[in-house]
Write a structure and sequence with these properties.
Elements (H helix, E strand, L loop, with lengths): L2 E6 L4 H11 L6 E7 L10 H4 L9 E2 L11 E4 L3 H14 L2 E4 L6 H10 L5 E3 L5 H17 L5 E8 L9 H14 L3 H4 E3 L13 E7 L5 E8 L4 E8 L3 H14 L6 E2 L1 H9 L2
Parallel strand pairs: 1-2, 1-4, 2-3, 4-5, 5-6, 6-12, 7-9, 8-9
Antiparallel strand pairs: 7-10, 10-11
Length: about 270
C-alpha cells in the first residue's frame, strides 16, 4: 500500500524535483496525491507536466486544505511564513509532516514544535544522506579536538536566488561543532566579519556565505589549528539528493508517533549511525 504524499511548494526548485522523483519512482512506495503552491500562473496545471516530466493526474492548487487532511505525509519546501502559518492546520489533521523549509525564526519554529505535539514532524535544514553523515563526523571531530586550540569556521555557497543566510545546512553543521565542543551555538555564532572585529576569541564559530550563479550547495567546516588545517566538506551537484532524502523521510515518518524528529532519526536505517 502506497504512502500518499502532498508536496507543499510544488512549483519551486525542490518541489519540482520531489514531484519528478516520485513519478520516476526514485523512492518506491509513494503516491503523489496533491501539489500545492501559491503561484497564480501554475494553478490548475498538471503537476507532472509543470515539473517537466510525465503527467501525474494531479493538478496544482493553492488550497492545502483540499488535499492535506487525506494525505499520509505533507512534504514542505515552501516559505518560512507559509510553513508556520500551516502548522496549526496540519496539527489538527494529524498528517505527518516533513519540513525542508529554512529561514524559520524563533516564533515560526515554535509553531512547528507545537504541531509536533499532535503529529509526527521531521524538521531538517538538509535532507541529503551525505550532509547528515557529515554532521555526525563534524560532531565526532569536535569532540576529539575539544580544548586543543582548533578554531571552527563554516563556509557555504549557494545559488543567487537563495533568500536566507547562513543556510539551514550551515547552521546544522555549526550546531554539530557546537555540540561536540559543548558550546551554546547562539553564544558562539558570528556571521561574517568586517571592519576591525579584533582578535578571534576561542569560543567562536564563524559563518561565511557565498551567493552566485546556480550553485546547488557547497559546505565546508574548517578546524584550524596551529600548523595544520582540517576541512570536512560536502558538495551537492543535483537537487535530487535532497529530494530523495525527503522522500525517504516521508516513507519513514508515516504512521510514527507524534513528536519532533530530525533527519538523523529518519536516516538511521540508511546510515546505520
Amino acid at each position: 500500500m502506497s504512502v500518499k504524499v502532498v508536496i507543499q511548494g510544488a512549483c519551486g526548485r525542490m518541489g519540482k524535483a520531489l514531484i519528478r522523483c516520485i513519478l520516476e519512482e526514485k523512492v518506491q512506495g509513494l503516491e503523489l496525491v496533491g501539489a500545492v503552491d501559491r503561484r497564480e500562473a501554475e494553478q490548475g496545471k498538471d503537476a507532472g507536466v509543470m515539473a517537466g516530466c510525465k503527467a501525474a493526474g494531479v493538478n496544482v492548487t493553492n488550497r492545502l486544505e483540499e488535499v492535506g487532511p487525506d494525505a499520509d505525509v505533507i512534504i514542505d519546501f515552501s516559505s518560512h511564513t507559509a510553513t508556520a502559518g500551516n502548522a496549526p492546520h496540519i496539527a489538527e489533521w494529524g498528517t505527518a509532516w516533513v519540513i525542508g523549509t529554512t529561514g524559520l525564526n524563533e516564533e515560526e519554529q515554535a509553531a512547528v514544535h507545537a504541531a509536533a505535539e499532535k503529529t509526527p514532524v521531521v524538521l531538517s535544514g538538509n535532507m541529503s544522506m551525505g550532509i547528515n553523515l557529515l554532521c555526525h563526523l563534524v560532531e565526532l571531530g569536535a569532540q576529539s579536538l575539544k580544548g586543543k586550540g582548533y578554531d571552527v569556521e563554516v563556509l557555504e555557497s549557494h545559488h543567487n536566488q537563495k533568500k536566507d543566510s547562513p543556510s539551514g545546512t550551515a547552521l546544522m553543521l555549526g550546531q554539530a561543532a557546537a555540540d561536540g565542543y559543548g558550546w551554546d551555538l547562539k553564544e558562539a555564532q558570528v556571521d561574517g566579519r568586517s571592519g576591525m572585529p579584533g582578535e578571534r576569541p576561542e569560543k567562536e564559530i564563524g559563518f561565511h556565505a557565498i551567493r552566485g550563479g546556480d550553485i546547488v550547495g557547497d559546505h565546508t567546516v574548517m578546524f584550524a589549528g596551529v600548523g595544520e588545517l582540517l576541512e570536512l566538506s560536502h558538495r551537492a551537484t543535483s537537487r535530487d539528493v535532497f529530494a530523495i532524502g525527503a522522500l525517504q523521510a516521508a516513507l519513514w515518518v508515516a504512521g510514527k508517533e507524534a513528536r519532533l524528529y530530525t533527519m538523523k532519526d529518519a536516516m538511521k536505517y540508511v546510515l546505520g549511525i
